[in-house]
Backbone:
């Protein structure tokens, strides 16, 4: 947090230690869940588009190697978000479908908020991809209220 000094230069002021810890804890948790949410959302999109999500398609869309995808799919299976079927691809469980829908809705709200502020559609889409994972429920509700109050974007 910075406040202007008498000379106009910003002055660094540390926040309370408990608030500092909580802020960093929330950021770490958001980073941990970000990959999981991105994977289940992409898997849901691929299933919606072509009936299934294949490891090769996931790797191509995320720009990562297939072994990276295989490792993450194993984790998603263990966490109960996906099921892998031999020779048939990857499918979401009910928990995976719920998580994908929640992530998609957060993305939609953040993107609409950015558009309402005048951000270009392409930039808003890209920026929302990162921001969506880091906003609190309170901030998301404020974004939603702002967009609804300004006729959406």
Residues:
């Amino acid at each position: 947090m910075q406040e202007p000094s008498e000379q106009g230069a910003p002055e660094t002021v540390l926040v309370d230690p408990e608030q500092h810890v909580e802020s960093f804890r929330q950021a770490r948790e958001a980073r941990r869940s970000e990959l999981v949410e991105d994977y289940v959302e992409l898997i849901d999109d691929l299933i919606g588009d072509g009936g299934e999500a294949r490891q090769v398609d996931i790797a191509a869309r995320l720009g990562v190697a297939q072994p990276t995808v295989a490792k993450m799919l194993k984790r998603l299976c263990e966490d109960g978000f996906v099921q892998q079927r031999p020779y048939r691809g990857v499918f979401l469980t009910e928990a995976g479908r719920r998580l994908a829908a929640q992530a998609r809705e957060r993305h939609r709200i953040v993107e609409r908020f950015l558009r309402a502020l005048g951000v270009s559609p392409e930039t808003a889409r890209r920026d929302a991809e990162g921001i969506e994972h880091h906003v609190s429920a309170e901030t998301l509700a404020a974004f939603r209220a702002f967009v609804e109050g300004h006729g959406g974007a």
Summary: The chain has a mean pLDDT of 86.
